Amino acid sequence: MLKGKHIILGITGSIAAYKAAYIIRALVKKGAEVQVVITPAGKEFITPITLSALSSNPVISEFFSNRDGSWHSHVDLGLWADAMLIAPATASTIGKMANGIADNMLVTTYLSCKAPVFIAPAMDLDMFAHPTTQQNLDRLRSFGNHIIEPAEGELASHLVGKGRMEEPDKIVATLETFFDESMTLKDKKILITAGPTYEKIDPVRFIGNYSSGKMGYALAEACAARGAEVFLVSGPVSLQAKHPSIHRISIESAEEMYQCAMDVFPSVDAAILCAAVADYRPEMTSAEKIKRESTGEMTLKLVPNKDIAASLGQIKMADQILVGFALETSDEVHHATDKLKRKNLDFIVLNSLRDQGAGFRCDTNKISILDQEGTLTEYPLKSKQEVAVDIINKLVSRLK
Ligand code: PMT
């Protein structure tokens, strides 16, 4: 996918700059031509000689050469590129890019670049979490740039948290997927449900569940990153959808989620139902806060909610793909098979609470995918972002 592609690799002043050498090697091995643009601070962390030897191209850092006065045209470079990748991208460079502070060759090249831009942040966890950095990243996303989220782990400061630049092989895989026409979701519309539903008992109490929305939001971001327009029907969660192509519709109850999903479904190519929808709701909702003193012992009568997946399964058109989840605690494959058939799904993603690191709230998941043809594919424990990619790869093959 990268054969013959022109890639500008921007390197900034981070300890992760050494990983840029691995990125160049992988890109060159896959047939890409790499032109390195490095900031002055970047050169403190890795030498231009190493980078030039690996890329077989002189490394560009300054606007002018002191020796002969020749100048490097950031405009020509920007036009030459099929993609620009900034890895590692420091908080400082991200800030400059977000605000057009063009005081070095890397940022001027970025501003001149017409090709897609990928940014792989690398910094300390508090710097990454700081609202300034997050707002700058949101701004860059809103311009259509692709942010390759940093991973969690031990940082140069020896603190542990989110801020480690993503590994070179995963960064290169992101570019490969982008250029792989067969893996794109461009021009596709996807409905995704995520998070829990809240079923109201009175104005201060509800029946809910432990869903954090992490799995559903990872799916939404991954679909949008592949070019899809995403309709994310979300229960109450503390997460935010970041990609500009995600339209978030916030709901609270299963009934509201049902109404939204039924409205949106006819206009989409596929739906992925990741929400943990309450199967029951209280028959009566009290308008006033229920008082223990006046109520005494209390029995809640619950009535079943509509099954959103099964309802969509009934109105599904031949060219639409419907993907469900099954969250199980025993006899997993049997229950997932039953749901796959009963709800008329194309495939179902099974996760079991018996697997450590799987299911609610955690950053990882362990899934199996079971399809209509009876094929069961098991995957190892992965981050929810990686799990989302596995699910979307399966979806893309179905949409063909
Ligand atoms: O949000 P996280 O903390 O990241 O956790 C992720 C998750 C555990 C919620 C997710 O991976 C998951 O398993 N989601 C589905 C949870 C669930 O409700 O599973 P289920 O087996 O009860 O339901 C089967 C399918 O029917 C699901 O696609 C569900 O969305 C759908 N359903 C269920 C009930 C209902 N009334 N309507 C539905 O559409």
Structural notes for this entry:
The chain is of the alpha/beta class and 400 residues long. 34% of the residues lie in helices and 24% in strands. It has helices at 19-29, 48-55, 74-80, 91-99, 105-112, 125-129, 131-142, 168-179, 214-225, 254-264, 292-295, 308-315, 332-342, 384-399; strands at 6-11, 33-38, 83-89, 117-121, 146-147, 151-154, 160-164, 189-194, 199-202, 205-207, 229-234, 246-250, 270-273, 280-282, 302-304, 321-328, 347-352, 364-365, 367-371, 376-378, 382-383. The strands form six sheets. An eight-stranded mixed beta sheet has the order 12-11-8-13-16-17-19-20, with helices on both faces. It is elongated. The two termini are 19 Å apart. The relative contact order is 0.09. The site of ligand PMT has 27 residues, from helix 9, helix 12 and strand 16. Residues 1-189 are annotated as: Phosphopantothenoylcysteine decarboxylase.
Give the topology.
Blueprint: E1 6-11, H1 19-29, E2 33-38, H2 48-55, H3 74-80, E3 83-89, H4 91-99, H5 105-112, E4 117-121, H6 125-129, H7 131-142, E5 146-147, E6 151-154, E7 160-164, H8 168-179, E8 189-194, E9 199-202, E10 205-207, H9 214-225, E11 229-234, E12 246-250, H10 254-264, E13 270-273, E14 280-282, H11 292-295, E15 302-304, H12 308-315, E16 321-328, H13 332-342, E17 347-352, E18 364-365, E19 367-371, E20 376-378, E21 382-383, H14 384-399
Parallel strand pairs: 1-2, 1-3, 3-4, 4-5, 8-11, 8-13, 11-12, 13-16, 16-17
Antiparallel strand pairs: 6-7, 9-10, 14-15, 17-19, 18-21, 19-20
Ligand PMT binds at residues 193, 211-216, 254, 273-277, 279, 305, 307-309, 324-327, 339, 351, 359-361.
Binding site for CTP: 279, 289, 325, 339, 343
Region (Phosphopantothenate--cysteine ligase): 190-400
Domain DNA/pantothenate metabolism flavoprotein C-terminal: 185-396
